[in-house]
């Protein structure tokens, strides 16, 4: 095993090569991949040769994989429920003209961490490029450990012990999806500390997300302002970089110490086919095996039926 690691920023992000991701990893190689992941937060693997099946098999070596929400009334684009669809394509593989789907996906262009709206979150996200647009469509990443460490001491003290309330529907509303504040509130929140210890590295990290609506126990406007202030701090140029894709490129990020957002592109004219697996935090069995479908069902959201 000969893992080659090229840092992207001095403290954050690395391009990694030297191993074949299409074959099962031995224990030592798996540990080396996890060690690189913990240290750098984001790892980029070029030209992996991964297919849907080997993407899933590779991901599964790191824990329990979430199932993407099963849409009702329309065929799912992928044969495997472990693949979350981050493309702009519909089930037949052509560029989607469904306005609701487009507005729903827009939320991914806001800085966020995956599944912060779940009580049991996503720890690792593994996003594989199948088709990239000619221009734009990159993904941006932000370093939530360095950002926390660089915060003024007074801010660290001010936010210690605070918890944010997260909702998928809040980030969808921010992206333009038609929802009222009342509808977002009625669907409930997952609550997570604003600062936590990143277990794998032992470093402290901000845990922010575009899904974060407000701060428990603070007036809403004050909570919103604090979230905006921390997000602006953590996404300054020294904490962020972007990656561009060619088919076969895989990027892996640790959602417990990073934020990310999709880059803009001409989504009505250019195809972008990205597929993601999500490794559940802590390998927990306590959450429902199909918690994303449950979330959409409970909210009564069906992207493929017109809203009344
Ligand atoms: C995701 C996501 C952004 C992108 O898949 O979780 O936010 O660039 N993707 O596709
Ligand atoms: Mn995401």
Task: Describe the model.
The strands form four sheets. Strands 1-2-3-13-5-15-4 form a seven-stranded mixed β-sheet, with helices on one face. It has a three-stranded antiparallel β-sheet with strand order 12-6-14. Strands 8-7-11 form a three-stranded antiparallel β-sheet. The chain has helices at about 25-40, 50-60, 100-105, 145-150, 155-160, 170-175, 180-185, 220-235, 290-300, and strands at about 5, 15, 40-45, 85, 120-130, 140-145, 165, 190-195, 195-200, 205, 210-215, 240-245, 250-255, 260, 275-280. A hairpin with a 6-residue loop joins strand 1 (about 5) and strand 2. It has one domain (about 5-300): Clavaminate synthase-like (Double-stranded beta-helix), CATH 3.60.130. The termini are far apart. It is built from nine helices and 15 strands. It is an alpha+beta fold.
Question: Descriptors for this entry?
Answer:
binds N-oxalylglycine, alpha+beta, 308 residues, binds manganese (II) ion, Double-stranded beta-helix, single chain
């Amino acid at each position: 095993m000969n893992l080659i690691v090229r840092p992207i920023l001095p403290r954050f992000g690395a391009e990694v090569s030297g191993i074949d991701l299409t074959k099962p990893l031995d224990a030592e190689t798996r540990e080396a991949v996890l060690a690189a992941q913990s240290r750098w937060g984001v790892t980029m693997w070029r030209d992996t040769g991964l297919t849907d099946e080997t993407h899933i098999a590779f991901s599964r070596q790191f824990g329990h994989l979430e199932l993407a929400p099963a849409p009702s009334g329309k065929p799912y684009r992928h044969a495997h429920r472990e693949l979350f669809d981050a493309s702009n394509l519909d089930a037949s593989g052509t560029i989607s003209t469904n306005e609701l789907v487009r507005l729903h996906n827009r939320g991914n262009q806001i800085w966020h961490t995956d599944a912060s709206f779940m009580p049991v979150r996503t720890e690792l996200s593994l996003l594989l490029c199948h088709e990239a647009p000619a221009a734009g469509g990159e993904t941006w990443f932000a370093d939530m450990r360095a950002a926390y460490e660089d915060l003024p001491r007074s801010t660290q003290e001010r936010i210690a012990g605070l918890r944010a309330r997260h909702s998928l529907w809040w980030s969808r509303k921010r992206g333009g999806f038609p929802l009222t504040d009342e509808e977002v509130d009625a669907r409930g929140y997952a609550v997570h500390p604003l600062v936590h210890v990143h277990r794998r590295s032992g470093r402290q990290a901000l845990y922010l997300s575009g899904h974060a609506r407000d701060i428990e126990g603070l007036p809403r406007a004050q909570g919103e302002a604090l979230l905006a202030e921390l997000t602006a701090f953590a996404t300054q140029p020294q904490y962020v970089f972007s990656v561009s894709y060619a088919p076969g490129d895989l990027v892996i990020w640790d959602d417990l110490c990073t934020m990310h957002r999709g880059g803009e592109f001409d989504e009505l004219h250019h195809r972008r086919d990205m597929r993601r697996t999500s490794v559940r935090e802590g390998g927990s069995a306590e959450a429902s095996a199909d918690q994303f479908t449950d979330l959409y069902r409970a909210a009564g959201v069906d992207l493929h039926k017109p809203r009344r």
